[in-house]
Design brief:
It is built from six helices and five strands; from the N terminus they run βαβαβαβαβαα. The protein has 167 residues and is of the alpha/beta class. Bound molecules: 4'-phosphopantetheine. 4'-phosphopantetheine (PNS) binds next to strand 1 and helix 4.
């Protein structure tokens, strides 16, 4: 069985992430969506919350499993016997960071490949950070995140008093 991993922070999952996950399902028998720790990022949602949001967003995707892992991606891929990790590439700006990670992961686990999937042109500009920023300014994010998590994002921005420029 060919196993692929879609790793990320997913804070929160966006339509761009969902696109990469659903296209990965055509390549692998089983797709593991792994919510990992990116030490460079301060997150809006806890790992458990992000897993829950992802589970709801992928509920209709049969061969998709959502997990959390607080260690190295290379180690997790080894544990699960994964053939490859799939990363979405939006623009040239993503490349250097992703290339560095791919080379590092290859050193840590030579059996693991990294596949770069070009993002759908509709999602070229989309990122979790952009979604959070739009929501912080009270903008409409309904085209950018799955409908089933929309209220969760809006609610958390309000709860954490992150709304900017609103009375
Ligand atoms: O969505 P992100 O934040 O760009 O995803 C990055 C992530 C979480 C996949 C990356 O930081 C990661 O793999 N974290 C786990 C720890 C690890 O393996 N670090 C070494 C990668 S070179």
């Amino acid at each position: 069985m060919k196993i692929g991993i879609c790793p990320g922070s997913f804070d929160p999952v966006t339509m761009g992430h969902l696109d990469i996950i659903s296209r990965s399902r055509k390549i692998f028998d089983h797709v593991i969506v792994a919510v990992m720790i990116n030490p460079a990022k301060k997150t809006l949602f806890t790992v458990e919350e992000r897993i829950d949001l992802l589970k709801r967003a992928t509920a209709d995707m049969e061969n998709v499993e959502v997990v959390g892992f607080a260690g190295l991606l290379a180690e997790y891929a080894r544990q699960r016997g994964a053939t490859a990790v799939v990363k979405g590439l939006r623009a040239v700006t993503d490349f250097e960071y992703e290339f560095q990670q791919a080379l590092t992961n290859k050193k840590l686990n030579p059996d693991m490949e990294t596949l770069f999937m070009t993002t759908n042109s509709e999602h070229m500009f989309l990122s979790s950070s952009i979604v959070k920023q739009i929501a912080m300014f009270g903008g409409d994010i309904s085209n950018f995140v799955p409908e089933c998590i929309l209220e969760d994002v809006k609610k958390r921005i309000c709860e954490d008093q992150l709304l900017i420029g609103q009375k």
